């Protein structure tokens, strides 16, 4: 097991380096705004832009820029420590900015995960056990709706309906409320709508996924054996059916958590929540490469780490898996 | 002697599908006495598994239409509540299945799976149930049972898994064990061991056994009585010796000719039954075996044969339209190694001339 983990961690390093290269290449090759121009403010003189260009190191060749950046993300090499570079826009190191926003993103992600699991899993089980019933049809119909509606649409609809300032039924704090709230309770209240919007699509995906899995599992021979033993139907479904059908959910959940910790860009943007996703979105709009690089790398780190954790967890969940 | 342990009467299991009514089991009757072994033999799709799952109350499809009677110990099972059936399953009637790997839950230890069955029916502690599981594993011949109870199914070999399944089935000392193709998924050498084990435990526990198989060889040793099923019906039933020595149905002959025999010369070819089992939606008219029967006559395509006692042996029943004397002549030719076509020519040509 230890050797397996060590091997996987080496892969993590390699993967993160590759991702860094790809992000850099995409940013350099594909057309984007000139960071120096974006930094210089309204109608700058060419001289000012040139000065900024030199300050930011953008006058150097691309390979040289890349090596400088690598120096910024590797400890010991560049001498700058791991600050993931220096924001073109804000004159700040990137990593502290990300870490400052991390709790917000974690808060958002945790609430959403709890919400979608507590809706998606029971709904999936019920639909699988009562396949073809009215409940199954209605639940799966709504699920399809939620899966199909993108967050930026669904989020705006939610704001339109429930925002306490502009909503038809002004019952929930909406846009920007998180940043304005000063108590934990206030912040939680501000996240109710984002949690629901973020959780809706995931709950729908999980319910459908679990339903399909459980329907297949309930056809298995070992379910017939469980019934032949004279177990109660409840025990057959939960101890034997759900236990087996839910394992792939762990993979899904691990990756989804990893993705969300890297920032729920759409949700954070629609509701103006100051998390990592919003930070990344703002950076993209002003071509702030170090911030984009940093948030991408940070998100990638969570995803690869979560998939490693999932793989390790699997050895405990499924006795057939050994490393 | 009293009433038989299991009494199945005119059992029909039909499934309504989009393509039509599938008559998986179409009016079968049999009885099993305490301690007795019944073999149910037939090809895939002959309805043998469906009929026994129905006895257990495990035919769960919503489109199943079940009629007839199943009485166990005098109690009607088809009309029993789900709760009553649950208390009978795994307790009075236990079942083992074809593929022991897929029939055991991959995530639970073998001991836990056996103990779970014990606790479903007995008010015992977890430790007591575990001890019972270990005891059963030792009884079915698993070495180091206490250690093996702590292992997962994938850590067992195929034969060991089937032993564990048997241990699970017999843990509550059932009166009836239904073994559905218990050896089909196993190596030949292991097959014999498993059959021996079932026989030994049967006499130890005085359990009645229903063995379902497509392989007459499996039931030859252990069954007291054999029912041969074809297309959802029993076409011949008799005690085991009679089925092997004096079968009176062309389908049974076909089954017998298609298994190798030790007493036949080595270069003798096996004779397969031509054709395939019929669609259970559109059964052939008349005798449902007629499209594959080498001895078919025009009239057999119209008349549906009933299962009737064979002359001279009331315990032997056969559903064949051929005259009993013709059947006996045919069989006596076949058993000497004559091919069906030649036997037909020898026996029936003469017969037809006489008519």
Strand content of chain B: 15-25%
Overall geometry of chain B:
globular
Q: What structural class is derived from the secondary structure elements of chain B? A: alpha/beta
Low-confidence stretches of chain A: none
Distance between the termini of chain A: 6 Å
Question: How many E-type strands of chain B?
Answer: 12
How far the N terminus sits from the C terminus of chain B, by CA atoms, comes to 47 Å
CATH architecture of the largest domain in chain A: Orthogonal Bundle
- The average pLDDT of chain A is 88
CATH homologous group name of the largest domain in chain A = MetI-like
How many β-strands of chain A, per DSSP? Answer: 0
Beta-strand content estimate of chain A: under 5%
- Our Rg estimate of chain A from Cα atoms comes to 24 Å
Poorly predicted segments of chain B: none
Strand order of the largest sheet of chain B: 6-7-8-3-9-10-12-11
**Overall radius of gyration of chain B:** 22 Å
Q: Judging from the principal axes of the Cα atoms, what is the shape of chain A?
A: globular
Largest interface chains and counts: A-B, 22 and 27 residues
Membrane topology (chain A): Multi-pass membrane protein
GO cellular component, one term (chain A): plasma membrane
Domain ABC transmembrane type-1 (chain A): 102-314
Keywords (chain A): Cell membrane, Membrane, Transmembrane, Transmembrane helix, Transport
In short:
Chain A is mainly α and 323 residues long. Helices cover 74% and strands 0% of the residues of chain A.
Structure description:
- By secondary structure, chain A is mostly helical.
- Chain A is 74% helix and 0% strand.
- Chain A has two domains: 2-73, no CATH class; 94-317, MetI-like (MetI-like fold).
- In chain A, helix 1 runs antiparallel to helix 15, helix 10 packs antiparallel against helix 11 and helix 14 (276-285) runs antiparallel to helix 15.
- The N and C termini of chain A lie close together (6 Å).
- With 355 residues, chain B is α/β, with parallel strands linked by helices.
- Among the domains of chain B are: 103-169, no CATH class; 265-354, no CATH class.
- Chain B is globular, with a radius of gyration of 22 Å.
